[in-house]
């Protein structure tokens, strides 16, 4: 996988800086500083939100269900209401809450001198475009999986093989639900208010993490609190920018504070 910053710079054949500058009334130098401030936060959020089989399974499923590839290839689409809506949905998955997103925007604003409101407006489009880059890379890698990272290889294979089938399944499920509601009335709809969603990605990742990956020796007995595949997940989502340790520490503190508060509420 390309580092996130480099991936962002490749969107629509390298037009990301110009597109964001025009959209938000910024100079390209300001856009560059904004991206350098945001990428560590996105990388941290991606690593944390995919640190379990369920997390990476849900992320893969979300990646195939949106229109993210379109946003990477056509930046203007990322600024449309649909692009913003799907970007906000992905921000929720990556960061966990609007509070974290706001805190990240505030952190980036303090580091760059760019207004927090500008970051809040930028972040949904950034999320949509980045996800498009990840989707395209994973799909392309699926045909020649040899990265040396078994998780990344499997991620690519699953993206390439199931992206289209996931979209078709979603369309079929929607049509079936509508047909049942029309046929049986409101009772059918009520009985399925909270269906148990099946996620094949989660099932596959859980199986692989239990049994190990093909061609890979089983890891040594891990420490109880550490995921033996965490480094592989971490390597997939590299920020690609050099930041001061204090800035990364502050980014980590935002996520740690949210998790602490979440634990306190449960």
Q: Could you explain how this protein is built, in words?
A:
Helix 4 runs antiparallel to helix 12 and helix 8 crosses helix 9 (116-141). The protein is globular and about 40 Å long. The chain contains 14 helices and no strands. The chain is 74% helix and 0% strand. The chain has a domain at 4-141 and 149-162 and 226-252. The relative contact order is 0.16. The protein has 266 residues and is mainly alpha-helical.
Précis, in short:
The protein is mostly helical and 266 residues long. It has a domain at 4-141 and 149-162 and 226-252. Helix content is 74%, strand content 0%.
End-to-end separation: 36 Å
Order of helices and strands: HHHHHHHHHHHHHH
Tell me the fraction of residues in β-strands, as a range.
under 5%
Q: How would you state the average pLDDT, rounded?
A: 76
Helix content: over 70%
Count of discrete alpha- or pi-helical segments spanning 4 or more residues: 14
- How would the global form be characterised? globular
Produce the secondary structure layout:
Blueprint (H helix, E strand, L loop, with lengths): L3 H7 L5 H9 L3 H22 L3 H13 L2 H6 L1 H4 L2 H15 L2 H15 L3 H26 L8 H35 L1 H6 L8 H12 L18 H7 L8 H21 L1
């Amino acid at each position: 996988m390309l580092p996130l910053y480099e991936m962002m710079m490749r969107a629509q054949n390298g037009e990301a800086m110009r597109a964001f500058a025009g959209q938000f009334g910024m100079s390209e130098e300001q856009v560059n500083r904004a991206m350098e401030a945001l990428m560590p936060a996105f990388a941290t959020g991606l690593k944390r939100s995919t640190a379990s089989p369920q997390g990476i399974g849900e992320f893969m499923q979300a990646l195939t269900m949106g229109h993210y590839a379109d946003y990477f290839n056509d930046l203007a689409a990322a600024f449309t209401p649909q692009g913003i809506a799907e970007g906000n949905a992905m921000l929720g998955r990556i960061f966990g809450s609007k509070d974290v997103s706001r805190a990240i925007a505030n952190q980036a604003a303090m580091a760059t001198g760019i207004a927090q409101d500008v970051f809040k407006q930028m972040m949904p489009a950034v999320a949509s475009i980045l996800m498009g880059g990840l989707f395209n890379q994973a799909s392309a890698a699926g045909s020649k999986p040899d990265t040396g990272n078994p998780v990344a290889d499997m991620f690519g294979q699953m993206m390439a093989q199931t992206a289209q089938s996931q979209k078709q399944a979603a369309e079929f499920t929607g049509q079936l639900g509508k047909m049942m509601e029309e046929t049986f009335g409101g009772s059918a709809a009520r009985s399925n208010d909270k269906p148990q969603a099946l996620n094949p990605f989660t099932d596959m990742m859980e199986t692989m993490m239990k049994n190990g990956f093909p061609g890979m020796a089983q890891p040594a007995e891990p420490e109880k609190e550490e995921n033996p595949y965490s480094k592989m997940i971490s390597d997939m989502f590299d920020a690609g920018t050099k930041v001061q340790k204090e800035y990364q520490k502050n980014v980590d503190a935002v996520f740690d504070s949210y998790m602490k508060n979440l634990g306190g509420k449960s």
